[in-house]
Amino acid sequence: MKHIPGLDGLRAVAVILALTVHFGAGFGGGWIGVDIFFVLSGFLITTILTSEFKSTGSINLKAFYKRRALRLFPALILMCVIFLPLYNFVSFNKGIRGYFVIVFITLFYLQDFTSGFMSHDHLDNQFVHTWSLGVEEQFYLLWAPLYKLLLLHKKNTVLTLFILIITSLSFLFITSKGIEGNNLAYFQPESRSNELFIGCLISVLLEKFQIKNYFFIKIFLATGCTGLLIIDLYSTRFGILNGFAPQQLSAAISSAILIYGIVNSNGQGLLLRILDSRPFTYIGKRSYGIYLFSYPILRLLIKEFRQLGILKNGISTSYLLIAILIFAITFVTASLSYKFVEQPLLKLKI
Q1: How far is residue 187's CA from residue 190's CA, in Å, rounded to a whole number?
Q2: pLDDT (tens digit, 9 = 90+) per residue, 187-216?
Q3: Whole-prediction pTM value?
């Protein structure tokens, strides 16, 4: 597929939103960054698979999974290796055995299942943020072969996606209804996969319907941005548990509308000039590493600064300065990983 810089810029927005909620910077709605990632991932994967099917008449699943492994595993393994000397910190004082249990759960993309079903103590492990990678990996395992079958047998892909989305939304609304603090709705793949399938649906619809009139493109861009902003502000004000299911669905739909507008915009307009700018695309291309390394680095440094008495609870000047320091360390680590680990291995793609 043709590279669209604006989508790299959108990745940058998504990872910055995710960092704000990790930092606890008073933006409780930053969790929508993960929703943007999910919808974007579903869109991109489906677009890539569609392009391959159009050019070859089939989809090479072995090559697809190899490309995914080369894209995701190197930085993930690097994270586990870097934090090995800090095994007690990562495992919440459960020792080296506890660390390797967490590494096993992480490398086999099971953090989403364990976070959904296990006690709150499990959520104290410093690799718990990889739950979202688990949701995506399980999506890849299901969607790639299913989509191949749908294309080969010329079945109704749109109808299939609607069924998958409604099924996932049923799990989402059932598990989140009236159960405060329930982890199932937030972490489990069956309740979050609707966002990925919504991204798939946008990709399929783009094959059939494209917007040429820039006035309507601006409406899509404005609607998507406004929707995400409203959800962010609402969640910050009232909390994620106050109607999580409608919030999540609204975030997914807003993300899809925004992506649809970006892809059709051909780089036109102020928003696209911002998203296409070098700072946004630079961060966006390194967003995977930034997301991966930020959480354990943040938890480690905040713990150390609090023990030293430099940092106290609440937002303060020292907190903001430390947040800037943490982002700088994360950014450098992610950039080094991107240049010396991820990019060289990506050249092995087939």
Answers
A1: 9
A2: 999 999 999 999 999 999 998 888 888 889
A3: 0.94
